[in-house]
């Protein structure tokens, strides 16, 4: 399998995982809510942050001449960009869902 296909599959898997966290089966009372849901989102944020730092380090190495792997640096940069975009979409969906719940009449 080519590296681009492998990257696409990896990103698709992460997006599906984040979508599963965002969609949730039902609204549960706070005492019954999964305590791990917030931890999963924080783990996703840390993963995206790590990818961005890795991409920045790879680009800096290419810029300074320490590395000649321009293609690898660009792939790392694109991975970080797509991961960040996916995380923003999940955040936006969660924010919209929260706003919808707050606007519900009692």
TrEMBL record:
Pfam families to which the protein is assigned, alphabetical: FliE
Q: Which GO terms describe its molecular function?
A: cytoskeletal motor activity; structural molecule activity
Its primary localisation, in coarse terms, equals other
Sorted keywords for this record are: Bacterial flagellum, Cell projection, Cilium, Flagellum
State if Nuclease is listed as a keyword.
Answer: no
Could you tell me which InterPro entries the record lists for this protein? FliE (IPR001624)
**Compartment(s) where it occurs, according to its Swiss-Prot or TrEMBL record:** Bacterial flagellum basal body
Q: Which GO terms describe its cellular component?
A: bacterial-type flagellum basal body
Look up the record and give one Gene Ontology term from the biological process aspect: bacterial-type flagellum-dependent cell motility
Family to which the UniProt record says this protein belongs = Belongs to the FliE family.
Indicate what this protein is called per its UniProt record: Flagellar hook-basal body complex protein FliE
Q: Which organism is it from?
A: Stutzerimonas zhaodongensis
């Amino acid at each position: 399998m080519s590296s681009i296909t492998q990257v696409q599959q990896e990103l698709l898997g992460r997006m599906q995982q984040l979508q599963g966290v965002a969609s949730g089966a039902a609204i549960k009372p706070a005492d019954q809510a999964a305590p791990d849901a917030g931890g999963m989102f924080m783990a996703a944020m840390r993963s995206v942050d790590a990818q961005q730092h890795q991409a920045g380090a790879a680009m800096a190495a290419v810029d300074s001449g320490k590395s000649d792997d321009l293609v690898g640096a660009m792939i790392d940069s694109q991975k970080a960009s797509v991961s960040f975009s996916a995380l923003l979409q999940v955040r936006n969906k969660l924010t919209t869902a929260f706003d919808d719940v707050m606007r519900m009449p009692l």
